[in-house]
Amino acid sequence: MNLRRRTTALLSVAGLTSSLLLTAPQSASAANLIENPGFETAGTGDMPYCWEKSGWGDNDFSFTTTADAHTGSKAMKVELTRRVEGDRKALITESADCAPVVTPGKQYDLGLWYKTTTPDAAITLFRHDPTAGWQYWTDLKTLDLAGDWTEATVRTPEVPAGTDRISWGVSVYGTGSATTDDYTMDQVPDPVLPPECTGTAEQCANGKWDVLPTRNPVRSMHSVVLHNGKVLLIAGSGNDESMFEAGTFTSAVYDPANGSYKVIPTPKDMFCAGHVQLQDGRVLVMSGNKGYPTADGRVGYQGYKDSYVFDPETETYSKTNDMNDGHWYPSATILGNGDVISFGGLREDSTGSVTAELFSEAEQQWQPLWKVNQTWSYWGLYPSMILMQDGRLFYSGSHVFGNNIPGTGSAIYDYGANTTTQVPGLRNKDERDQSASVLLPPAQDQKVLTLGGGNIDSNPEANRLTDIIDLKQPNPSYVAGPPIPQGTVDLGNGPVPQTGNQGKMYVSAVLLPDGKVLETGGALHNRANPVYETSIFDPASETFDPVAVDPEARGYHSSAFLLPDGRVMTTGDNPGNGTWNHDVSVYSPPYLFKGPRPQITSVIDTEWNYGDTQRITVDRPVAKAQLIRPAAVTHSSDPNQRFVDLPLSVEGDNVDLNVTSNPNLAPPGWYMLFAVDANGVPSVAKWVHLQGPQALKATDASAHVHDFADAPKGKAEGPGKQRVSQKVGPTVSGCDRHYGSINVCVPTDFPSEVKKTAAARCEWLKENDYGRLKVNGKDDPLGLDRDRDGIACGKGDVKRG
C-alpha cells in the first residue's frame, strides 16, 4: 500500500473515531452537504477549513488558495510541475466535522466549477467504514480541459454497505493544474412510485423460465453473444466421435429476435476450444480437438495448434497463424491493450501445455515463442484468469477436471514482471473443478466470487462453497461467503431434496444489469445427477435469493448467458451416457415483471474512448447505467465477463455517462449499455464500442490506479525451469475409456455411495441410462465384465456380483 496515503488515512481515522464517540452521524438533508464549499473560510494551517492535502508518488506539486475564483474571493489550485508517478488531490477533510454523512444504498449528486490545464484530472471519492477506516472508493469523472470556468456534475453509485461518511475532491495525475470552486453535494431523492407487478405474484418474486419451442440444432458447448445481438453456438464435433470421424463440424448462429438458427460451416473440430471477443467484435477461437482418446484409454485427448477468427458480419471463419503449442481447454483473457493471453490445455501429444500464448491486437496474430513471457507453469484446463485493474491476472482457482494447481489453488500473475504470487483462503481447493468465478458488479470494486465445484477424479458429492476475495486489499485473501442454496437432485429415480452439504458442480454464473448475479444449473457428480436450483446473489448484502428453477437439466457442457434484452439463455447438457439436451431455456428475472422498462431513446455516439463523457437520452428517470461485456462462455468459465459502472449526471431526459479512464477495468471491445431505474428495472441494451484514445497507447494506463493487492505476503516466484510439457494422465476427463463408445463417460471413480461391486456399479449405470457397454480391449479395470463375454453389465456380470 502507498505509505503516504496510509499515514493520512490512519491519522484521519483516529480523529474521526474519537469524534464519533461524542457525536452520532445525522441523516443527510436535501441541502448542500459540503462544509466550506467555496474555500472562503480559512483553516488553522495553509489549507482552507475542512480541506486537506492528499496524494502520493514521485512528483513536484503545489496547493494554492487563489483569488481567481468562480464566485467569492477564493478557489483552490492544485498543480503538478513534474510527475514520474502518483497524484495530488485536495480533499474534504476526513473528520466528523467535515466529511459529509451518507446513507448506504443512497446516491448523491456532486457538482463543482473548475478550470484545467491538464487532461489528467478527475473527481475522486473515498469512503469511511467505522471498522476498516478510510479507503479509496472510486473515480467518478474525468475533467475535460477547460480554460474558462466550467461546471462538472456527476451522480455517485449507491453508497456501499458499512459506509457512514465520504470525502471527495479533484485529483491531478499529470503535469498541469486544476482550479476548483463552489462544490455541491445533494442526496438523490428516493423514487416516488413503487414498482407495479405486471405478472403473477410468483413471477414478480422469482421470475419465470420458458423452454423455447425450437430446439438447438447443434450440440453446442460454446456460447458467444455477438455485438449484433445474435449468439454464436459452437459445437465442432459436439463430443461425438462419429461426427469427428466424418469430419462433420458444426456451429450455429441464433437470432433472439425471431428465434431462428442458421447452421454455419465450421472448418475444424472446435470442440473444447477457447474463445474471446476481439476489440473489433470478431471472435478469436483458439485450438480445439485434434483427436479423441483411443478406445483402450492409453492415449487421451489432443489439442491442435490451429486458430480461427469468426466474423459476425459475414458469419464465416477465417484462419489465423498457428499457436506455438496445442491447447485443448485453454484459457482466453483479453488485456487492457486489446491483446489476448492464453494458458493451459492439452498439447498434440495429450500432455499438459506449459506454453503461454499471446495474440497481438496490433499485428492480428499469435506471437512467436521468444516474444512471450513464460513461467513454464502448467495452469491446468480452462484456468479462470481474470484481468485486474492494474493489468495483472488473478487465477481464481476455478478450473476443469481433477485437482487444482499446487499450492493454495489461487494466485496473482504479473505478466510484466513474469512472477506468480500465491493467494490464500480458497477452501477445498481440490474440489473446485467445474466451479464458476465471476468479477462481481461493479468491476471497480475488484471483488471476485467463486462458487461450487467438485472433482472429476475422486468424484465426491459437489459442494455448496462460495468464497469472495477483495483484490483492493493490500494482502488479498479469500473469505468464506454464504453457501449456495439447495434445490433438488435427480439420483436416478426423479428429483429429491438435497441434503447435508450437497451442492453442485458445472455451475453457471451470469451478471445481471441490476447489479446482481444469477447462478443456475449444475450436477452432484461427474456427468451425473442433475441439480435443479437457481438463485440470485446480491453483492451488496452477500446473500442468495432462491428463484424459479430451470426445468431442464444443465450439467456438463451447459452454458448460461445474458441476452441484450435482459433475459438469460441456457443451453446444453451432456450426461455420461453420451446423450445431449437440445432444449433451450430462457429466464426472465423478476425485474422484467416490475412495470414499464426505461428506454434509451438515443445514444449520441456509439464509439467511446476511455475517460469520455458520453450522452444518452432516456424516456424517464434512471438511477444508474453500466456496461456489461457480452458472454463468451464454456464449461462454467467466462473470465472476461464484467459489469462496469458508469457514474452519471442527469439533466431532464439527458444523461451524461462517465467512462472509466482505465482500460484494464473495461478492456476494449463492444459492450451492452443498460440504463436502470430506481426500482432495478433495466432498459433493453444498446451496443457501444469502447476503445482507447491515442494518449493511452503512449502512456501507462495504470498510472491512475489506486492502491490494492500491492503487498501480498506470499512469495513472488519467477519462472521455473524451461520444459516441454506437464505429464497428464489419459483419464484426465474422469472417464474410463475401456467401456462403451468414445462419447460415453463411465466414471473412473463412482460416487462414494455406490459399492465397489459389479452389481452395484452396473445398477448405477442402468439408473443413469448407459445401457449395454462394449469392453474395449482385454482390460476390465472396473470389474464390469465378470463373465468375460466382451459386454459390460450383462446378465452374467450382474449375477456374479
Automatic annotation (TrEMBL):
Q: Which SUPFAM superfamilies does this chain map to?
A: E set domains, Galactose oxidase, central domain
Composition bias, kind Basic and acidic residues: at what positions? 711-720
Does the record carry Signal as a key word? yes
- Residues annotated as domain Galactose oxidase-like Early set: 597-689
| A Pfam cross-reference name | Glyoxal_oxid_N
- Domain Glyoxal oxidase N-terminal residue range list: 250-577
One GO biological-process annotation of the entry reads: carbohydrate metabolic process
Cell wall biogenesis/degradation as UniProt keyword: no
User: What PANTHER family does this protein's entry cite?
Assistant: LOW QUALITY PROTEIN: ALDEHYDE OXIDASE GLOX-LIKE, SECRETED PROTEIN-RELATED
Q: What is this protein called?
A: Galactose oxidase
